[in-house]
Amino acid sequence: MTILIKPVTTENLDEEMEPCLEDTPTEKRAEFPVHCQSKKAWFKIASDKYGVCGFLAYLDGRPAGLIEFLPVNTVPYPTERPKDTVYILCAYVRKDSQKIGVGRELLSHLTRYLATTPVESFGGRKTAAVEVHVPCPNPEWPANIQFPAGSIEFYEKFGFELKKEIPEQQGYLYRLELRHEK
Predict the structure, then answer these.
(1) pTM score over 0.90
(2) Nearest by Cα to 70 from 59, 55, 60, 80
């Protein structure tokens, strides 16, 4: 078993969206091309402006998971916008690739990348922290978006701490302070 992490680019964006489709009913997949074009347009704008904003995990050469992120000042945010913080928009691992380290590799790669890479939109500073909104489970949601950014337990294993409960968004805001080597 080999896990390879690559930045999401316009060349592999279709592969990045593949894991999200695993539970999509066939009749809903017809809508995918329209969604794909919208996502490609958004992704091009975001990556041109902010640089790398996603990583894709390949398990034995097959797309197995993804993580998308942007500077917190660019996304709808439930509270004050902390300085030099990245917000995880989505983190997802295919069901057949869960519990074998794919999510752990994605998040580890992301935190290493952010701790060592200066961010232009942060004035060339490195990322100070990573935040993520983790929703409460909702049985009315489809299984593939139950935890679109991962579960509370997943983030707590990495040292994320509860920053704030957000009742109006039915979830929690978790934060991880990054350590920078000098």
Answers:
(1) no
(2) 55
